[in-house]
Amino acid sequence: MLAPLVSADIGAQHPYQSSSAFGSSQFYTVTFDAEGEAIVVAKLTFQNTGSVPLETINVEIPGQVEIINAVQEVKAVKDKNNYYGWKYKTLPHSQNTLSTSSTFTFILPQAVGEQEQAVILLYYKVRGMVQQGILDSRFNFETIKHGQYTQQVRVSLSVQEGLNLKDGKITLNYNNVMSTSFAQNAFASAEISGSEMGKLSQSLMSASGNIVKTASGLDPWESFSVKGEYSSSKLWLYKWNIISSLVIFAGLMLLCAWGIRRIKSKLKKELPFSGVLWGLGNSLVALAAGWFGFYLLEHLPRMFSYAMRDAVGIIIAFGLVLLGFLLLLGFPVYLSLQRNDWRIGLVVFATTIFGLVVGGMILVVVMQM
Asked: Which residues, including other chains, have CB under 8 Å from residue 140's CB and lie 6 or more apart?
């Protein structure tokens, strides 16, 4: 059954940028939400390698699919400024729902001639690609299948605000035309300007995301899968990294204690091994203070006005340097003078350095998650 969408025959102008020099290509931006749904904006190009005009396109979309809107991008005549005008025409379609996917037949409003490309933009929701656990969700996003060889596939993955994507980078793009709200507006109706649809179409080919994956050389009816995991708790996502880091840290501490006992037995005299505990505690205080200080420096733009940022940043940096000097040198000297034993200061200093090195490595691993 044909399911026509909101009619949109709108124009846009931008420099011509081919989606693919030859052959078909696919570009996606995918955003996962807490309910296990994915919101997808896709740009698909199809090369007409036949001798007759291409009037329909058949595809298979994995998952439980709900098409929100679909349009064909039609290139108009080049103007005097070497710009192409673009029109976006609604794609009527028929859908056949299968057990794990749906097949679609899109009827092109403007047929595509021999060795020309058909370009369509799809905006849809898909379910069934996310396996939700108690505190995390695992996804397996699968691209659209069709009957042509696919030269290039690019998938940009993100999660909604408040969620964390494992192994995903943080992207800050204050002029991001690929936001979900922008896509909603661009596809909304004929009243939306064609320039927004043009920006949407072009940006799909290089959209940034928390994770970007690419593939090439797909056979007909072959798809490209991107797997991952996301959660509202960043600690839960990296629980095994944290546990393994703690196990390594505990093992190093035991190795250090064993080494100290060996030294003690060889020297055959008492050493101030209470300094080991002081040193470890000293290193923990230094690491906590350093982490908090760098956190403040990173978030200065949100916490202080522009006029105060430099002054506050200098104060924080000076405080970190002073505190580091006191903990690394001042505290060991103080204990040596108080106990009248230079050896305890030496033990505290050495153990502090050891704790900073090991703890710093763990902190770097955690902060990069």
From this structure: 129, 131, 225, 226, 227
pLDDT above 90 for 96: yes
Q: How many residues does the chain have?
A: 369
State how far the Cα of 256 lies from the Cα of 254, in Å rounded to an integer.
5
Q: Which helix (H) or strand (E) holds 359?
A: helix 342-367
CB atoms within 10 A of CB 237: 22
**Residue 16: count of CB within 10 angstroms of its CB:** 11
**CA–CA dist 156, 169 (Å, integer):** 12
Q: Which DSSP symbol is given to 201?
A: H
Distance separating alpha carbons of residues 53 and 111, to the nearest angstrom: 6
Which range (70-79, 192-201, 264-273) has the least confidence?
A: 264-273
pTM of this structure: 0.64
Which is it for the CA torsion 343, 345, 348, 352, positive or negative?
negative
The residue among 183, 61, 184, 41 whose CA lies nearest residue 121 is 41
Tokens matching residue 367: 């902060």
**For the sheet containing 164-165, what is the strand order?**
130-132, 136-142, 225-231, 164-165
The Cα 360–Cα 368 span in angstroms is: 12
Residues near 270 by beta carbon (within 8 Å), at least 6 away in sequence: 264
The residues with which 33 forms a beta bridge, in sequence order, are none
What HEC string does 261-281 produce? HHHHHHHCCCCCCHHHHHHHH
Task: Specify the amino acid at residue 204.
Answer: L
pLDDT digits (tens, 9 = 90+) for 278-290: 777 788 888 888 8
Q: Which of 249, 331, 254, 251 is nearest to 289 (CA)?
A: 331
